[in-house]
Design brief:
The protein has ten helices and 19 strands. The chain is of the alpha+beta class.
Length: 559
């Protein structure tokens, strides 16, 4: 039987490499040796191929928009018991979904004679028609004329309104003076005269408003000929877009290891009751697994790596492995992995099991806890064991005043009662608490100290990752100070002084190219995994709730 067209044999000998017993959990893994070798082979191909051009931002002479790309490799076994691998890319590559070296998409929306292309032409024609109408000279002139006439009408009406007020005031003065000077009969006659004047002025004011309304309505009716046509076309475009989207969702139908099929429509709309995210089904992992199942190839182990320059908002390192994205891929892969023996989700394991909390200090108002690394500060969605739950077993009224990331070790402040909590919490809000972290960075910094100012928000498609976002991000500032440089290990030991307290602030500020461009050692989200995250909250200083004196606490890091 011939080797499947997208099955790629290993160039290097892999006979001494042990195969994994279980398929790796795609959302948290360390790249297997076979994955690393397969990725190197794909990277060699990307560097040497001449069939297509795509600007990854690695060569200053390349033209076109810079777009880094996520690639994936899936080590597989064919029917002849040969071990090879499949390769895929996320989204499009060089403006195409199809390249002979990579597995095809689950559904090729760019196929020339496909329904997507045909409907895309219709939508493009609608877009052009809408654009032509919106830019029509007569329409633009009518809009300008209508706006100008509207302003004229408002101005003239306002002037006459003020005249009415003046006339009203004049009548009041005349009436008050006449009440003292005229006889009762003459005064009644004057009052009738003033009333008639008021009614006459009101009549002409209302007529002025009616005249303007009729005049503007005539122009507005001419405008509505264009507006109604534009609205009709936009409605047609929206309906066609929605229909096209639904057809696409049905066409994206995925296989799992049991040979069962499910569409995007079923996975997201029907089961999760949410709309599929943009680009769902276009990532490397679903493409790889779908092709493997379809061609009777047994999946063994998966890995995905970034190639090229990173997006401005995200942290992506060239050549580094990353887990599958959660918002788009987790529901899809949750179905596609059914029937495979997969590693247990490590995020469902209690990381605090067997670990003890050290109480550094305690009095009637608060406790200072030295939290171990990989220990939740507060209960999570799946894991309830945390600093808060353990402390509340001893002190039911105790409340954490602040939090540390699960992977960060160090000092945590816990209030024993409500009044202490409120007093201590106010200090954090007013930023009068002094905090210092110590970290080891993967790289050597060029500066000795400085301020990092990069706003952060959560990555909605890949929680709990954070993004740099100048539009919607919250302000995040960190001061840093270099303590020691280890040229042999290519590492830098630093102090961090966070001025704000955003989620993953120090980790993102360290790793992002616009920050220090040196991830914290052991950062499994923004850098490279190690035995632990080398980040420790070593110093806290604040005002005591009872004595009102400044107190401070320090615990050395264990790395």
């Amino acid at each position: 039987m011939p080797v499947p067209s997208r099955f790629i044999p290993f160039k290097k000998s892999i006979k001494d490499i042990e195969l994994p017993k279980l398929f790796n959990f795609p959302f948290y893994y360390e790249a297997h040796e076979l994955v690393k070798i397969a990725a190197e082979q794909v990277q060699e191909y990307l560097t040497t191929q001449t069939d297509w051009k795509h600007n990854f931002g690695l060569n200053p002479n390349d033209e076109g928009m810079v777009i880094g790309k996520m690639f994936g490799v899936l080590v597989v076994r064919n029917k002849e018991n040969e071990i090879g691998f499949l390769a895929a890319f996320s989204g499009k590559l060089a403006d195409s979904n199809e390249h002979h070296y990579f597995v095809p998409p689950v559904f090729d929306i760019l196929k020339k004679d496909g329904f997507f292309r045909k409907e895309e032409e219709v939508l493009n024609a609608l877009n052009r028609e809408i654009e032509n109408l919106e830019n029509d000279n007569e329409f633009k002139e009518l809009q300008l004329f209508f706006n100008a006439e509207t302003q004229r009408s408002l101005a003239e009406i306002e002037i006459n309104k003020q005249k009415l007020k003046i006339k009203k005031q004049e009548r009041k003065v005349r009436r008050e003076a006449a009440s003292k000077e005229l006889s009762e009969t003459d005064f009644e006659h004057l009052k009738e005269q003033l009333k008639d004047e008021s009614l006459e002025q009101q009549y002409f004011f209302k007529k002025l408003k009616r005249d303007w309304a009729e005049r503007l309505l005539g122009v507005e009716n001419q405008l509505n000929v264009f507006k109604d046509k534009i609205a009709e076309l936009k409605k047609e475009r929206k309906n066609r877009s929605n229909d096209l989207q639904q057809r696409l969702f049905e066409k994206y139908t995925f296989l799992n290891a049991r040979g069962e099929y499910k569409s995007l429509q079923t996975i997201f709309n029907k089961e999760l009751e949410i709309a599929p995210p943009a680009g769902a089904g276009e990532c490397a992992a679903p493409k790889l697994l779908h092709y493997a199942y379809k061609n009777n190839l047994e999946p063994i182990v998966l890995g995905e790596f970034w190639w090229g320059q990173p997006p401005k908002s995200e942290i992506r390192k060239h050549g580094q492995f990353y887990p599958s994205c959660r918002a788009k891929c987790e529901p899809i892969l949750g179905f596609m992995l059914q029937g495979l023996e997969v590693e247990e989700n490590p995020m469902l394991k209690n990381p605090a099991l067997g670990k003890e909390l050290e109480i550094v200090y305690e009095d009637d108002s608060f406790l200072i806890i030295n939290k171990p690394a990989e220990f939740l500060s507060v209960p999570g969605r799946n894991i309830k064991d945390s600093v808060q739950t353990r402390i509340q077993e001893i002190y039911p009224s105790a409340v954490l005043v602040h939090r540390l990331d699960q992977s960060t070790s160090g000092l945590l402040l816990v209030a024993k009662n409500k009044s202490s909590y409120q007093f201590l919490q106010r200090q954090f809000i007013k930023r009068t608490v002094k905090k210092r972290y110590i970290a080891v960075l993967d790289g050597i910094l060029k500066t000795k100290n400085g301020l990092i100012d990069l706003p952060l928000r959560v990555d909605l498609e890949n929680r709990p990752h954070q993004l740099i976002c100048y539009q919607h991000g919250k302000p995040a500032q960190t001061k840093y100070e270099v303590l020691q440089v280890n040229s042999v290990k290519n590492q830098t030991r630093v102090y961090f002084y966070p001025l704000t307290g955003r989620t993953h602030q120090l980790r993102v500020h360290a790793a992002h190219p616009n920050g220090l461009n040196a991830a914290i050692v052991g950062d499994d989200l923004y850098g490279t995994r190690d035995e632990r995250l080398h980040l420790h909250a070593e110093y806290l200083e604040f005002e005591h709730p009872k004595t009102r004196e400044r107190v401070n606490f320090k615990v050395e890091a264990d790395f």
